[in-house]
Sequence to fold (156 residues):
Amino acid sequence: MSEILTGGCQCGAVRFAVETPLGRASICHCRMCQKATGSFFGAFVSGPNLRWTRGGPTRFRSSNKVVRGFCAACGTPLTFEWGKLPPELSIGAFDDPTRICPVIQMDMASRMPWFADLADLPVRPDSEAPWLAEVVSYQHPDHDTQTWPPTDGAAG
Fold:
């Protein structure tokens, strides 16, 4: 039985819904994915029946083969689009990204040399970072609401 998963950008200007089952979730270490996401890799998954439920992505052609969608307001990476194939969605843009586990990695030649060691880094417990309790997020909540965006102009 299929279900609908939702997601969107950081500011809430772009929202989507996609039907399960999703396609193969992957991590790409190529330099273009690193630059497009501002991270060590891009994590994407394809999904059938994608609907933009609020707004839609602005697109940038990053190569002769790929167009990337992002929110023009906040810059959140949203899609990886290869030709006529259905768009792949950024896993981190889903409201519950823990439900989507990558099953394959690509372009290992561009992977950061220390990537495999990340899980072994020391961890700072939240109790040693009391300032975290003072952070007030203006990020769109990880679900759709009737009260978004906030009326105080704090979105972003």
The longest helix spans residues 31-37. The mean pLDDT is 89.
